User: What shape does this take?
Amino acid sequence: MSLFAGVKREVRARLRQRRELDEHRTWAAEGWRVEREIEAVVSQGRPVLVGPWLSEVGYEALYWVPFLRWVRSAFRLSSDRVVALSRGGVGSWYAGIADRYVEAWDLVTPEVFARRTLERGSTKQLEPSAFDHDLVAAVEARIGERVSVLHPSLMYRLFGEFWSGHRAMGFLDAHTRYEPVSPPVVVDPQLLPRDYVAVKFYEARSLPATPEVRRVVTQIVERLAERGPVVLLDTGLVLDEHADYALGTSSRVVSARPWMTPPTNLAVQTQIIAGARAFVGTCGSVAWLAPMLGVHTSALYVDPKWLHVHLGVALRVTHKMGAGCFAPVDLRGLDPLGLGLPVTVRTT
Assistant: This one.
């Protein structure tokens, strides 16, 4: 190797090291900014509105609520100052965080909710939108007080470094508190079977609605029904691209749809999952929640790349909590449910 080539290699190595150091400083600085902004919100002395949460259910259960528990602890934020604003009747998810819960669908119709969410251009709340501001104003009018807003964009900014691979799992551990979730009672328990499996399959990039996946999902429900009652958590609501799979009912397969309204649909699903012997469904959404309710969970997928780091997070936190078992199931492999289904799913 020539002297010149050696010098070039050394220069490239030093430049790469400098870029990495600059990136680390940038990530650290963003984290400090987020924490200062949280402190500024909490220190204003007004009621603190956490939300409005308009993003995916899975992010709310797996990140937002645990993040708020960390905020409560780190910034000594008393729950009697906090108002949670979300949708679907998830007030019980915020127990210990917020003494007051406001239902977004008591403020707007599902149709307006879907339209204005679409106008944001992103399912993730990377910054406050006009819809967010309108909902906050509606809450202030309802409670008769000005509020300080702790917006989900703060969490997205903080955890963006983790989701992109620039922070280790310890960073998430330091900014979250995972605890069991207590379910509400919305549906008369006498309406539910005595011993059942809760099932929720919906279309997702990790479980696309191809003919073969539809066949396998249908067979799974049929085989589960041979062993005992099944309760389908199909809402009948289509608010984003995650439409429920169309699955038939029978004497042993019951749909929970008649018990749901838009303002209560997630509350009903939470209660039904909590009372189930097990939960089986698409990996994502309430599959992240089910183990926190103490329910053993089989979360199915065929394409893990769309699940990002969330699979690892769910496995880690459910193990640490000692709650329900979380078992991700790749349908392309052997069938851990023991249903004897040969699965060779092709993805694009």
